[in-house]
């Protein structure tokens, strides 16, 4: 498992790349349940930059079932 410090660093870099323009901007974060910790850290960074994060996560099994 990746340690929390690396996850926090990745989330900061990801949010900086998003380039939030306005206060209150809605940002959708989508990923698998295996990456929940990273999704939450990204959401916290977005919140710190005055954005509004929305997290969507689903398991691989659910995603595969939807496309069959």
UniProtKB/TrEMBL annotation:
Name of the protein in its database record: Uncharacterized protein
Organism: marine sediment metagenome
